[in-house]
Design brief:
This protein is an alpha/beta fold. It has 10 helices and 16 strands.
Amino acid sequence: MKRVVILGASGFIGRHCIQALLPFENMEVIGVSRQRPEWAERQGIADRWRCCDALDIVAITELLLTVKPTHLLHLAWFSGHSQIWSTIKNLDWVAASLRIATSFARAGGQRLVMAGSCAEYGGSGCFEERTAVNPSSLYGMAKRSTHETINLMAQQEGISFAWPRLFHMYGPFEDERRLVASATHSLLTGKPFPCSDGMQVRDFLFIEDVASALITLLFSDVEGAINVGSGLPITLRRLLETIGDEIGRPELLHFGQKNRTEHDPDVLIPSINKQCIELGWLPKHTLFSGIKRSVEWSRANLSDKRRHEGNQDGI
């Protein structure tokens, strides 16, 4: 029987991966995070959880040697949205990831999948997995060095290893500081949303598709770096206009009122040939269906928050 451990299971990607795995039979699924999230209790999967700080070398080593997972999906990393590009905490996660991989090997693990990032590529363009990586941020460099070191270790130890390079994603439970969630919240609450000119070209993938791709990869024999994306380039302007049209408040989008931020290339999109041909996976959601689902979830979530605040006020 497969025993699957997901590190970072309470995060944006992790919680969707847990949901994607629940229908599977003849499989033990264990979520790991610093604290057990409330929604795990509500969904009746609290017994599947282990509370452990992945940065605690002793604790995470003991957990993996005790549980002895056959498959490990490592999604944990520093989650500070605006600080992630330059914080030295990225180096803590390099060290932790190396220890996690080593402990997994010692526990007799078979298949290891660790989340990489499009930030590894650096620069502007459409990137293939064989493209030379030249990250322009500490975050990208940390991911790159983690991949290169663990790839060599996996080959030496005979472990099947894949490194999905994730591009841009969106959907339910997204951090409200991220683009799609932030714009959606502003428009739903009737507030103007200042943004750049929006001519940057990106690839956006609905979070349920991201989880589906990662689970498909986890149980495949595809190895090495692999881009995960929709394969449909779109300008940020068109993306935001789609959100505005879905909500019915496109006039609240104020393009050109903000300067572009650092680490914001003109074009950042993946070639998904390996994803399509070797992995045999394609997304189910279009941009329009994904945005519709995201807006519906955000509207319901906002309504729940207002109702909760009203109850607290005695209304």
